[in-house]
Design brief:
This protein is 18% helix and 32% strand. It is α+β, with helices and mostly antiparallel strands and 148 residues long. It starts with a strand and ends in an 11-residue tail after the last strand.
């Protein structure tokens, strides 16, 4: 599922295809995934699998959170959020590029943070732990675990 390009202690990176979200290319779906060590590669596979199987309810919750961020405005003051027919329409105005594994061992509950950007000029992200979206907004790195 993940095509690993770098595997060394302290940094492992690969790519995978997102089943729902798009990257900077409007029709692209290639994301990067990053883990702190080769010991966490199995965790990365679990996180990517969970990410690609987010439920409709979880995706809707993420989109509602992104809408709130876009309505708050960003660094691009010329951006005005147009009227949206559904919450999913916000995905026409933002993209994602990176999934960070937020687990310290294979015994941890599946947890990850996804990073992207909105046309309103702000970085945007969301954190998932288990089967629950625990955060959507600009402070997504606050939800990353520290090394033990």
């Amino acid at each position: 599922m993940i095509n690993w390009s770098h595997q060394e202690e302290g940094f492992c990176e690969g790519t995978f295809e997102s089943s729902f979200f798009h990257d900077e290319d409007e029709y692209g779906n290639e994301f990067s995934v990053c883990v702190k060590s080769p010991d966490l590669i199995q965790c990365a596979e679990k996180c990517v699998e969970a990410f690609n199987h987010l439920t409709e309810s979880e995706i809707n919750e993420i989109c509602q959170g992104i809408i709130s961020c876009a309505e708050d405005g960003g660094t691009d003051e010329s951006f005005e959020l147009p009227s949206l027919d559904t919450a999913l329409d916000i995905l026409n105005y933002c993209w994602f590029s990176m999934l960070y594994v937020n687990m310290l061992s294979t015994e941890d509950e599946i947890a990850y943070v996804v990073e992207g950007e909105g046309e309103w000029g702000d970085a945007i992200g969301f954190a998932v732990k288990g089967n629950k979206v625990i955060y959507v907004g600009v402070d997504y790195f606050d939800y990353m675990k520290d090394e033990e």
